[in-house]
Design brief:
Blueprint: H1 34-67, H2 77-83, H3 85-89, H4 102-133, H5 135-148, H6 156-164, H7 167-192, H8 196-204, H9 209-247, H10 252-261, H11 265-293
């Protein structure tokens, strides 16, 4: 006779209380307060501005120390502000002849740069496209351009004065001949660097010359083109300051030359600050336009 045994489960004294399953909630972004967002933006701004501000402050202090000596030939920053206070606080002064505020001198120079630079952009891009597309044109014109582009800008000024017999068009021509070469060369390089696959696709799709220009050539060349335009605007601003020293009239270049003849070194330093700031803004403006039009592919 077999007796069946009954197994009874006993509670384990070492086991802990039953663990409740944690409730699962969908991940959601942690709300960011206005103060923390403002603090984050402020920290970013400080990180961007602190290095250049500290560098400029260090250079000014160093300049002040070096120029404080009685034997120093150059004025210190505080002496520059004291000597040139009138032209610093009155940039919009309207006087007679060349007795104008610095704003009007810079404006006159920018107008000359604008005329010469726009003309250089039109000619440089047009001829650059021709050189990039035509091997025959490249072989014929490239040696000539390589020689012409090595001539210093001011070397063209006597020739332009003899041709135009007037300072205004002569200065515009000097700006044009200075800035056209980087635009032309970079445009032609961009055209030649168009991948052969793109050209094959254009042939397969039987694109017309206008469609090839707008759909393939322009998108592939614009980054190179804006590199040349950016170099060209910098060279234009350098050339106009030098050219205006010789042609005279209202302009930041002649203002510097007139201050030198009057031994106003502090006025020259203030004008150089204007020249540097305006040149920087011109460069950043062309870079920003290129970055916008090329959707970030152009260097900024």
């Amino acid at each position: 006779m077999v007796h069946s045994a009954r197994v009874v489960a006993l509670p384990n004294p070492k086991a802990g209380p039953p663990v409740q399953q944690a409730a699962l909630y969908p991940l959601a972004p942690k709300p960011v307060g206005v103060l923390s967002r403002g603090a984050r933006i402020g920290t970013g701004i400080v990180r961007q501005l602190a290095p250049p501000v500290l560098t400029i402050a260090f250079l000014l202090v160093l300049w002040q120390i070096l120029a404080s000596s009685p034997t120093s030939a150059l004025p210190s920053p505080l002496k520059v502000i004291d000597d040139s206070w009138e032209i610093i606080v009155n940039p919009f002064k309207v006087g007679n002849g060349i007795d104008q505020g610095l704003f009007w001198h810079v404006s006159a120079s920018l107008v000359r740069v604008g005329y010469g630079y726009i003309l250089a952009a039109i000619v440089g891009i047009g001829v650059g496209v021709l050189l990039g597309q035509s091997t025959l044109a490249m072989r014929g014109l490239d040696p000539v351009f390589q020689v012409l582009r090595t001539i210093p800008p001011l070397a063209w000024l006597p020739l332009s004065l003899a041709a135009f017999r007037d300072g205004q068009p002569s200065a515009i021509f000097v700006i044009f001949i200075t800035s056209v070469w980087p635009i032309l060369i970079n445009t032609s390089v961009g055209i030649r660097n168009i991948p052969q696959d793109y050209r094959n696709v254009a042939k397969v799709l039987r694109l017309s010359p206008i469609e090839f220009f707008t759909r393939i050539m322009v998108p592939a060349t614009v980054p190179h083109m804006f590199t040349g335009l950016r170099i060209g605007i910098g060279l234009s601003w350098l050339a106009i300051v030098a050219a205006e020293m010789l042609i005279g009239g209202v302009g930041i270049g002649f203002f510097i030359w007139d201050a030198w003849n009057s031994s106003l070194i502090s006025d020259i330093i203030v004008a150089l600050v204007y020249v540097g700031v305006v040149g920087f803004l011109l460069d950043r403006s062309i870079a920003a336009i290129g970055h916008l039009l090329t959707r970030g592919t152009a260097a900024q």
